[in-house]
Amino acid sequence: MASKNWAVLGGATAAVLAGVYVLWGPRGKQKVCSKDVCPGLVNVGNTCFLNGVLQAMAPCHSIVKWLGDFIDKRITEKYTHYLAFILVKVLKGLNNESIEMSDPYCPSEVLEALRTRHWIISSEQQDSHELFHVLTETLSEETTQFPRVISLFDVKGLEELSKKSQTDSTAVSRSRVLLPILPNRDTSHPFRGLLASQLQCKQCGYKCPVKHDTFDSLSLSIPQDWGQLSLDRLLRHYVKPESVLNVECEGCATSKTLSAANTLPKSTFVKQLTIGKLPQCLCIHIKRTIWLDDGMPMKRQQFIAFPEILVLDQYVYHKRCAGDIRGTTGLFGGKILTESASSLSPSTLQQPDTAQKLPNVSEHVELPHSLPTDSDVQTPSRSQKLPQSMPQYQDLYKLMSVVVHLGDVFNGHFVTYRRACPENDQQSSGKWLYTSDELVKRVPVSEVLCANAYMLFYEKM
Prior knowledge:
- The chain has 461 residues and is α+β, with helices and mostly antiparallel strands.
- 23% of the residues lie in helices and 22% in strands.
């Protein structure tokens, strides 16, 4: 009996000592991240979609700076509860700008911040592009200050209504009633841009006013039965004019007599789409999921060639003044582009060697005015000089990261190719990294340009 008690006591003592060793024993050495690579991210359960987006956003210097400036303006508030604070802390750590971040780092605090804002993110596999929009939408909400709604029981607030309304010099209603204060936004995040669209009647040429819509990413579809595909061809397909049937035309009504019901005559319009305002950071999403006739989804595996330097001048909306181009006004840019002549192809801006110096922000890169198609372009050598007659292009974007989805439509894994350092570090801006959760390794730029891209992140030069 005594021996049995001694055995129980000995087992309990051993358990206590083991617990003390675990809690207060020697700590393992924490892995120190090399400056040539970035920290990896822990996969806490099908979170590769999050890790891929965070690694893709990290080398974009504009978004990191914008997040830091946003928090600096709210340093007197409880800024730690902002998603912007958590993001800037993680992104700076992924750029080796934080000594507190371990390698690998667990980004679960980003998911917790989204869940506290009532986003439902399950433990199942998710999509990186959808998460990207969740992040940008949350940042937009944080930058927008909505006025407080006054309750009918708030007598004091109703008596001081003039202090919570716009002044007569700002806005006046028809009934001379004070208007409420509108939501105020400090500044939009760097991924926010504007699309410009316009309808024009085929019969009389009447043009509707230009309509602008915001976007955080451009989703490009892959056309059916196309041969060699490139990002430039997908962009041309995106801005291709479309016909809209049975649209009431005010222009046709001026030349025709209205019917007895006083309805406007209907005509066929052409819808032209261009980019009204380019963002500082451009996210391009390639739609790879299609639906078959039997309702089953399928992933398209075609390779899309993309450049390291992207020119978007031809896709931007230009409003010409009266007298320009034979006195016409309206929407220019993104015009009807044919396959044979037209525009800048990605192979025209063939990626320079990693050792070749890319232009600075203040420099203008000269490109050919008239270019052949993708199949006819020859890659210029480094010693070649461009003709002096070439125009200067303003809207130049530099590739910062590429998100790739490995697998099929039902399951897979997200990996990211990204630049090693932010743009302000000229010595490492040409180095590329391959990141897959905790795995981080150096890769050549040739491997990056051969990736089967799902999301492309560009930053304005």
